[in-house]
Please model this.
Amino acid sequence: MGAAKKETADYLEVCRVKRNTVEYDMAGVTSEAEAQELIEFTVELRSEVLHWLKANHPHLVRVE
Model:
């Protein structure tokens, strides 16, 4: 998906760093709203990735 998804990659990196902080350093760093935002974001991202795969590499997508 290339450079068009740089912001997505950056956002996911921020989430990864925060997850590591929560996992190893302290609890309560992530709010319920942030968790819900990430869930909604990943649902949309999954849809976009599947659409892109179907258009560009349909042999990689299982028909559901």
